[in-house]
Amino acid sequence: MLYGPIEWVAASCRLLSAIGDEFERTRPFDGLRIGTGIHLEPKTVALLLALQRGGADVISTGNLNTTQEEAIDHLTANGVQVIGKPTSDADEHDGDLRGVLATRPDLLLDNGGDLFARWLEEPYDGLIGGTEETTSGRGRLTPLREQLDLPILVINDSPLKQFGENFHAVGGSTLESLLRVTNRTVNGRRVTVFGYGSVGKGVAAYLRQGLAVVSVVELDPVLRLQALLDGFLVPEHAEGLRTADVVITGTGAPDVVTAADLPLLADDVILTNVGHFPWEIDVAGIRAAAAVVGEHPAGEGIATLVLDDGRRINVLTGGHMVNLAGPRPLGNTIESMDLGFALQARCLEAVAQRVVGKESCVVPVPRRIDEQVATAYIALHGRR
Prior knowledge:
This protein is an alpha/beta fold and 384 residues long. It has helices at residues 5-12, 14-26, 42-53, 69-77, 90-102, 114-121, 135-141, 145-148, 159-182, 198-209, 221-229, 237-242, 283-287, 334-352, 367-381; strands at residues 33-37, 57-61, 81-82, 107-110, 129-132, 152-154, 190-194, 213-217, 246-249, 269-273, 292-299, 302-307, 312-316, 361-364. It has 2 domains: 5-157 and 332-381, Rossmann fold (3-Layer(aba) Sandwich); 167-319, 3-Layer(aba) Sandwich (Rossmann fold). The strands form 2 sheets. Strands 3-2-1-4-5-6-14 form a 7-stranded parallel beta sheet, with helices on both faces.
């Protein structure tokens, strides 16, 4: 039997493996189809195959610019239908998402609200509900609660995901990705992090541990105060850009850095994003700005834009998530995703078994599931 990166990840996802064993006995998804739109990489392969072991017919597509061919090949070889291929084209991705919905899934595992928002455009009978993975998706779906009227559990609102994945895993993988993609040190570099939610907190903390000088730009005055008390500089937007060697966005909001900010940026600045959608840095608008007179690839995952005054602006991975794009994208650590995907599996089980109802529309993971997953993780990892 061949043993490679996907098998390594599967063997390391100890929680998912145990849940998959249980699901094979209990079959919570018998007769149900699960439609997913999620980053397709080795760790999500482990999740989707665990759901399949529970009796689910799994139909999947990827996210923009993060789908990995080997993940598609492995899923397809194991009976999971994958719609589409790796793409950074928004229209093509839209067609893939609609292709998933055309199969009329009973449950949706969503990432960014892409599937639920499109279901509302052309609803079909029989959708039971599902899960949403991200802060971006929660923000998108919350105003649509009345129209959705389905049980939708938001994985990102679990404290386990907040500190386990968003803080520690995204923080660590952002630092690792900066080093890997640029091959430059962060020691002593001035880094400005936009956003101080759980992702921004982790990114700021891990960059500081990497010996960078970290500033945080945050609009919420309470979170801004927290950043100050945590020991970070808290400049306004313009000053945060003006003083930065590296800019990292992780807010979930569009147009955090745009062409209007070009006059503020230092020569040789690095712009990178860790938010779910590739809209926080308006890469297309920056490229089209009159001040940009040239562009050249400076390495895999690095585009250097040349301004009319000679300054260079380095954009990483086209504004897509730096830890899931670029050369050898590894994403978050296996253990953190094992934890988050265990939440996914348990929440989909609860929705499928009607343990939660319409009153749980775009709400956090139930406390009992948090406790169940936390207890299982400690049993596997905390007492060795």
